[in-house]
Backbone:
């Protein structure tokens, strides 16, 4: 089973120890003990979803709400000068584990973290092309899965993927250079 | 020096701001904020998505072609000021935008980034989430160093965070569950095409 080989699922299942910061039926947040700065946290769904597109909207909402609370707690309790919320989706984006997670990172001046970029120069025509292509695919945005009013525990059903699909997906993710 | 604000004038201005009602203050901030003017349509932008709470526009200084700035229509300086229901909404839209990028502009990944505070790289006084399309060797080089923590530090930092969270997450959860969700467009199919995405992810 893909779930059994997933390091994050093992953290959630307590077979790998972690410093837990927050936990509810759907979400677990732990301290990254090898983080970009002390206080760096991972916020992850307890259900196994390799990438963000697979996470149901209701869980997305919850995960980012928890991330936002942790971000506030980092300001308050650690006296950070800033925080980043960072998600890497897919290998070219820097994703290294096939379990969706949100990084919440405390920031201070000159902390060696770089989340900046060199702006690329695009012509007006290139901008128009990408604008049209994106618009074509954003037309249907706006219908979001409503939150279930039932107790959360019932909502926390296994991901709607067959094991076979999951395993295939995880193999794809593991093909790291 | 008539053009410079004297300490007295500055003090008067600060007093004035202090005495503004929340509504007046919001109006004042909006007038100062370039992104509020974009939201109001006073400054032109390339809009790729809009609903009653959010506006997504193309970044004019993109990390990659298709780099989107997802703004709240309401003026918030940083993310901790957003109410829970808006946080949910913004990131459901961010997920959908990421999906649109994977399908619409032939990229193999996306980053979602929020910067709170100048030390975190925030440049504008208006909350936004960056959704950035990614490809292999695209020249975008984010650096997250690894700084191992001592056991003692793990306990002390961890416990300070737990104390600061103080159950607040659970408490506001109920309220968020009641938050109205937007109704617009047609329901999409729930399933996603795994083949497409794993193909993109496995492109290496």
Residues:
């Amino acid at each position: 089973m893909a779930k059994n080989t997933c390091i994050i699922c093992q953290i959630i299942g307590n077979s790998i120890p972690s410093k837990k910061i927050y936990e509810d039926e759907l979400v677990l947040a732990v301290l990254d003990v090898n983080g970009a700065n002390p206080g760096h946290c991972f916020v992850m769904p307890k259900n196994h979803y390799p990438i963000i597109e697979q996470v149901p909207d209701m869980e997305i909402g919850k995960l980012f709400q928890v991330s936002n609370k942790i971000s506030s707690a980092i300001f308050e309790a650690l006296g950070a000068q800033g925080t980043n919320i960072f998600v890497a989706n897919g290998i070219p984006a820097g994703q290294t584990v096939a379990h969706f997670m949100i990084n919440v990172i405390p920031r201070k001046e000159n902390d060696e973290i770089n989340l900046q970029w060199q702006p690329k120069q695009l012509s007006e025509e290139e901008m128009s092309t990408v604008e049209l292509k994106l618009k074509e695919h954003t037309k249907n945005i706006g219908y979001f899965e409503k939150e279930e009013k039932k107790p959360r525990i019932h909502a926390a059903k296994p991901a709607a993927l067959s094991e076979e699909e999951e395993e295939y997906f995880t193999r794809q993710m593991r093909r790291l250079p | 020096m008539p053009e410079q604000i004297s300490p007295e004038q500055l003090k008067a201005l600060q007093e004035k701001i202090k005495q503004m009602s929340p509504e007046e203050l919001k109006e004042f901030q909006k007038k100062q904020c370039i992104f509020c003017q974009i939201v109001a349509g006073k400054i032109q932008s390339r809009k790729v998505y809009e609903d009653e709470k959010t506006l997504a526009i193309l970044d004019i200084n993109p990390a990659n072609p298709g780099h989107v700035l997802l703004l709240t229509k309401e003026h918030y300086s940083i993310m901790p000021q957003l109410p829970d229901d808006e946080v949910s909404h913004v990131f459901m839209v961010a997920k959908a935008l990421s999906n649109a990028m994977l399908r619409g502009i032939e990229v193999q990944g996306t980053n979602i980034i929020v910067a709170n505070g100048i030390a975190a790289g925030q440049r504008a006084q208006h909350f936004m989430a960056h959704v950035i399309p990614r490809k292999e060797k695209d020249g975008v080089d984010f650096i997250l160093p690894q700084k191992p923590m001592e056991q003692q530090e793990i306990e002390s930092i961890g416990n300070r965070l737990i104390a600061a969270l103080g159950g607040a997450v659970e408490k506001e959860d109920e309220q968020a569950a009641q938050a109205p969700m937007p109704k617009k467009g047609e329901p999409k199919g729930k399933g996603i095409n795994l083949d497409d995405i794993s193909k993109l992810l496995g492109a290496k």
Summary: Residues 2-174 of chain A form a domain with the HIT family, subunit A fold (CATH 3.30.428.10). Chain A touches chain B through 102 residues (CB under 8 Å). Chain A has six helices and five strands. The first strand of chain A starts at residue 20 and ends at 23.
